[in-house]
């Protein structure tokens, strides 16, 4: 089967996470991605080197289905080759600080003159306008600046960043959406366009609908840990065998099921818990009741009880439990053989398309592995 983006060529100037993840998704959809790297390589190659030969987790996770070409953009030849590649491409993606590509002679204004159909996507920390445009950014910086970090934690812990790279992973999703929209618009207009996504903007958007609470009340949602700032019950509870359950009853239907599952149907008539507002107002008492109930039996017991009552719940699982789950292994894990790192498990893109499935076609490339190959193709096209 063909990929949805077969025949689409992308010149990828991105490094680290947010940019490479965007081009990885497009590559999985069938696009040809040529990854342009400096002589020392994408800076992500130097982080978390715990594989044979120095291959980093960051590089292996973000760069399958791509060809690596080394070009020194500080040289005239490197810039000239980059222009030639962009002239024959559908898309350019970069995540330098704003203005960097312009200084190199590779900005959108220059490249669109060479290729009016070019879609040029710029991903940056803070966008091309405003007082922060020139500041460097990594995921924790954006989590802090966007207000996202302020939502996480408890009054005792203070603000906490998320355990995963939230800003780095949501930003490329918006970049991909913008690129796909620009490809669709080009079908009608015949012309490309610039697409810009900042990590700051993308991360602020992901806090929806918490901003509405702030706009309505003038105060931010409280840091409540695993609890919710407006709903109860909504928390993680320990079981008798030291495991944890996430349990939510955001409406009366699920509250009825939960009360029955824990063997406390009398709670349904308790005035303290009679509706959502009452349950939230008395959530400390409700949490204490639920904590005592769940502590009285094992996780296995509660999984059976809660499933039978059609409640909203899940065991809190660690990575070993997640990645030994047969469903996860089947749908989300692919294995490739790498000449240096050996057998490498990696996550599939979680998009299922019946006619044009996303595929893992090639392993992450070695630095500059395809330089001669790609430049030879470029010379052949120029003849």
Strand order of the largest sheet: 3-2-1-4-5-8
Q: How would you name the oligomeric state of the polypeptide chains in this document?
A: single chain
Number of helices: 17
Point out poorly predicted stretches: none
Number of domains: 2
Tags for this model:
single chain; 383 residues; alpha/beta; Rossmann fold; 3-stranded antiparallel sheet; elongated
Structure description:
The chain has 383 residues and is an alpha/beta fold. The chain folds into two domains: 9-206 and 325-382, 3-Layer(aba) Sandwich (Rossmann fold); 234-238 and 244-315, 2-Layer Sandwich (formyl-coa transferase, domain 3). 40% of the residues lie in helices and 16% in strands. The chain contains 17 helices and 13 strands. It has helices spanning 18-28, 57-62, 76-87, 100-104, 108-114, 139-146, 148-151, 166-189, 199-205, 210-217, 252-261, 276-281, 283-294, 299-308, 319-323, 326-332, 371-382, and strands spanning 9-12, 32-37, 66-70, 91-94, 119-124, 153-154, 158-159, 194-198, 234-238, 244-248, 312-315, 333-338, 342-347. The strands form four sheets. It has a six-stranded parallel beta sheet, sandwiched between helices. It has a three-stranded antiparallel beta sheet with strand order 9-10-11, with helices on one face. β12 (333-338) and β13 (342-347) form a beta hairpin. It is elongated. The chain starts with 8 loop residues before the first strand and ends with a helix. The mean pLDDT is 96.
């Amino acid at each position: 089967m063909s990929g949805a983006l077969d025949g689409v060529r992308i010149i990828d100037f991105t490094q680290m996470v947010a940019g490479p993840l965007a081009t990885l998704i497009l590559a999985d959809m069938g696009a040809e991605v040529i990854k342009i790297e400096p002589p020392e390589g994408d800076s992500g190659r130097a982080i978390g080197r715990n594989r044979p030969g120095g291959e980093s987790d960051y590089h292996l996770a973000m760069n399958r289905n791509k060809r690596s070409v080394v070009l020194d953009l500080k040289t005239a030849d490197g810039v000239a080759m980059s222009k030639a590649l962009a002239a024959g491409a559908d898309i350019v993606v970069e995540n330098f600080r704003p203005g960097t590509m312009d200084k190199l002679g590779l900005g959108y204004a220059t490249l669109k003159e060479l290729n009016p159909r070019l879609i040029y996507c710029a991903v940056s920390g803070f966008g091309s306008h405003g007082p922060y445009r020139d500041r460097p950014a990594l995921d924790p910086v954006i989590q802090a600046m966007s207000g996202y970090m302020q939502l996480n934690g408890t009054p005792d812990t203070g603000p906490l960043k998320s355990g995963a790279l939230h800003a780095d992973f949501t930003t490329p999703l918006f970049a991909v959406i913008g690129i796909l929209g620009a490809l669709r618009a080009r079908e009608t207009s015949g012309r490309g366009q610039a697409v810009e996504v900042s990590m700051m903007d993308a991360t602020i958007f992901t806090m929806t609908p918490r901003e509405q609470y702030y706009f309505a009340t003038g105060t931010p949602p409280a840091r409540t840990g695993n609890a919710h700032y407006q709903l109860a019950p909504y928390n993680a509870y320990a079981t008798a065998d030291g495991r944890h359950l996430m349990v939510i009853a955001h409406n009366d239907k699920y509250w009825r099921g939960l009360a029955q599952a824990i063997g406390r149907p009398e709670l349904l008539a308790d005035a303290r818990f009679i509706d959502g507002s009452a349950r939230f107002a008395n959530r400390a008492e409700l949490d204490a009741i639920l904590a005592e109930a769940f502590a009285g039996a094992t996780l296995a017991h509660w999984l059976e009880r809660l499933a039978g009552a059609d409640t909203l719940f899940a065991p809190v699982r660690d990575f070993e439990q997640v990645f030994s789950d047969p469903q996860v292994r089947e749908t989300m894990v692919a294995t490739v053989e790498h000449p240096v790192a050996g057998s490498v498990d990696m996550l599939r893109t979680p998009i299922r398309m019946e006619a044009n499935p996303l595929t893992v076609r090639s392993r992450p490339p070695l630095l500059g592995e395809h330089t001669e190959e790609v430049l030879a193709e470029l010379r052949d096209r120029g003849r």
